Amino acid sequence: MSETIMSKTVSRRKRKISASSIFIYAFLTLASLLSLFPFYWMFVMATRPSAAFSSVPPIVTPGGLLVENFQKVLEQIEFFKALGNTVIICTAVTLVVLLISSLAGFAFAKFKFPGKNLLFVGILLTMVIPPQLGLIPQYYLISQAGLLDTLSGVMILFFLNPLGIFLMRQYVSEAVPDELIEASKLDGCSNFRIYRSIVLPIILPAFATLGIIVFTAVWGEFLWQFTVLRDPEKYTIQVALASLNNTFKVDYGMLMSGVFWATVPLIIIFLCFNRLFIASITEGAVK
Fold first, then answer.
1. pLDDT per residue over 185-228, tens digit each?
2. Which stretches are transmembrane (predicted)?
3. Are the C-beta atoms of 181 and 110 separated by less than 8 Å?
4. Please, what sign has the CA dihedral across residues 241, 242, 243, 244?
């Protein structure tokens, strides 16, 4: 009798679990489709003529003009040159941000020095300042340094990342035990040796997360790049694509084709580092 009751209880739980699982998977599938639809629609518009952009009802099936529209892009701008400039800027900024943020995060998490909390709060307060407010003084400083219309002038503004310092501090404080640091100091390790040999391997998942965030943020940034760059040879992909919109009649098929191919590198980078990115998020959730 008791076995029958237990089997009924287990079967009811399985039904509840299966019903809740179906609802969760259905919700996640719907959310995924809604998130991916803008990218799909961008691809559809990249394969269609410009008139399809304003058609009613909207066209949701791909056409056959993807190559032709991209050829128009290549005729209007130096697409691959601009893409290369963007890759150089994003890669350099990402590497410098990872280095500075991890070192600063390690110092804030594991060292005691006067004014540490006040300095950390000051760094966080810079995150609430709109970037537009600093545009004029930043432009003046870059011009005085002779870095206008250079890739270095675009990069240098993004080297110090308050969000990166905050994320690294939180990750190091939770992932790196204090006992491990103390044991390393007793063995005679310098602070930089501790960072290189102990801290750095532990925070690699956080590196992937922060690297993707910084790379995509710099890739999509437009205002500062548009302000600093004037030479078409130095254009980034965002500024180059914006120059396609300077005519009275915009070819939306050509524009969407350029945007689509400019998005492909970001997708490739995420696919290459998604395991570390997911591992970082999962590890934080478990903690």
1. 888 888 888 888 888 888 888 888 898 889 999 998 898 999 99
2. 21-43, 82-106, 118-135, 141-160, 198-219, 252-273
3. yes
4. positive
Q: What does the pLDDT look like over 119-146, one tens digit per residue?
A: 999 988 888 888 888 888 999 999 998 8
Cis bond upstream, residue 57 (ω within 30): yes
- On whether the CB atoms of residues 82 and 219 are closer than 8 A, the answer is no
Buried b (16+ CB within 10 A) or exposed e, 41-80: eebbbbbbbbebbeeeeebeeebebbeebbebbeebbebe
Structure tokens at 101: 């943020």
Determine the Cα–Cα distance for residues 221 and 237; give it in Å rounded to an integer.
Answer: 10
Question: In terms of residues, how long is the chain?
Answer: 287
216 vs 212: CA distance, rounded Å? 6
- Which DSSP helix (H) or strand (E) runs through 237? helix 237-242
Check residue 23 and give its pLDDT. 82
CA 97/CA 99 separation, integer angstroms: 5
Q: Which residues of the chain fall short of a pLDDT of 70?
A: 1-19, 246-248, 276-287
